[in-house]
Amino acid sequence: MGELIRIEDMCKIYNPGENEVRALDHISLTIGEKEFVAIIGQSGSGKSTLMNMLGCLDVPTSGTYLLHGQDVAEMLDDELSDIRNREIGFIFQGFNLIASLTAKENVELPLIYRGLPKKQRSELAIEALRKVGLEERMHHKPSEMSGGQQQRVAIARAIAQAPPIILADEPTGNLDSHSSVEIMEILKTLHDEGRTVIVITHDPGIAAKAGRIVHIMDGKIYKDEINEGKSESTIRAEVAEAQEHVTTKVKGGSTNNESGMDLHIKEDSDDGEE
Ligand code: ADP
Ligand code: MG
User: Fold this and answer.
1) Relative to the alpha carbon of 170, which ligand is closest?
2) Who contacts 237 (Cβ-Cβ below 8 Å, separation ≥6)?
3) What residues flank ligand 1, with Cβ below 6 Å?
4) What is the DSSP letter of 163?
5) In terms of C-beta distances under 8 Å and separation of at least 24 residues, what long-range contacts does 56-60 make, across chains too?
6) What are the extents of the domains in the chain?
7) To the nearest whole percent, how much of the chain has pLDDT over 70?
8) Is 140 helix (H, G, I), strand (E, B) or coil?
């Protein structure tokens, strides 16, 4: 398995200065091609920040990110947007579909940006919608579909140009449990077909499906291990343990003041988020 992603000693600090938030605190992480990784952590642990880095949507405060061995910081804007378009399929919690467009038109949109001719766009969009089982709904608008169906459209949009990497941030966060299972099955299929799938989640049930589980807590990687059939409840206990670890450190007034600061900012204030 070749190396796909190498993050070294990455930090992301929001609002540098007095009220700074250390969203990523010296993260190092490598991910191989064709891995199926879940990054799990509670709200505010830095998951979306990490996803933005992985997806070249934001730049770190310090540290390096090598994608296919290439330093992302040295890439030109054109190269970066090319990578985002061709290499990475993004799936977000809120689906991010355009309400006035049909399912098919939503899936075609990024293909238009890529300059594909109409016929090819149409074929790729239909093929992607077929993959997620929505061929019959392709002329429906998002408002005429359930949450699970809308997320399947978003997945079709992400996979239409066959990117080798799928990055999903809480893809089931807005869905009922039945739809969540469906979405995870689709992600599993995408992995079986040879894609690298990275799912960010706070849900142990979702993480249980992945081949590797990376726990993130307070901007740090707390645990990173191969998942050999862990149960949902085991993973849940591990998440609680990670939380406990941080809480204890703060309560004990440990030497790590920054971590205490972060936690208070998270607990006491909602502003500045999203
Ligand atoms: P998660 O996705 O795990 O809930 P985030 O990565 O969204 O966590 O956030 C990590 C921390 O960084 C949180 O404390 C959050 O409030 C803070 N944060 C996220 N985005 C910003 C931003 N744009 N400006 C300031 N703080 C932010
Ligand atoms: Mg998030």
Assistant:
1) 2
2) none
3) 14-15, 21, 23, 41, 43-49, 266, 272-273
4) -
5) 56/80, 56/83, 56/84, 56/88, 57/84, 58/12, 60/10, 60/11, 60/12, 60/24
6) 3-87+166-171+200-268
7) 90
8) coil
Q: Say which range, 90-99, 183-192, 213-222, 242-251, has the weakest mean pLDDT.
A: 242-251
3-87+166-171+200-268 maps to CATH 3.40.50.300: yes
When pLDDT is cut at 50, 70 and 90, the band that residue 251 belongs to is low
The residue contributing the CA closest to ligand 1 atom 7 is: 48
Residues in CB range of 198: below 8 A, 6 or more apart: 31, 35, 37, 38, 39, 51, 54, 165, 166, 167, 168
The ligand placed nearest to the CA atom of residue 169 is 2
Identify the H or E element spanning 114: none
Distance in Å, CA 111 to ligand 1 centroid = 31
Q: Which of 27, 48, 49, 267 to mutate to test the pocket of ligand 1 (most atoms within 8 A of CB)?
A: 49
The pLDDT score that the predictor gives to residue 237 is: 93
pLDDT digits (tens, 9 = 90+) for 1-33: 799 999 999 999 999 888 899 999 999 999 999
Nearest-atom index, ligand 1, CA of 12: 12
pTM score of the predicted model: 0.88
- In this prediction, residues 142-150 reach a mean pLDDT of 96
User: Ligand 1 atom 6: the closest Cα is on which residue?
Assistant: 46
pLDDT in tens, 111-132: 998 889 999 999 999 999 999 9
User: Which protein residue has the closest C-alpha to ligand 1 atom 5?
Assistant: 46
Q: Confidence class of residue 85 from pLDDT cuts 50, 70 and 90? A: confident
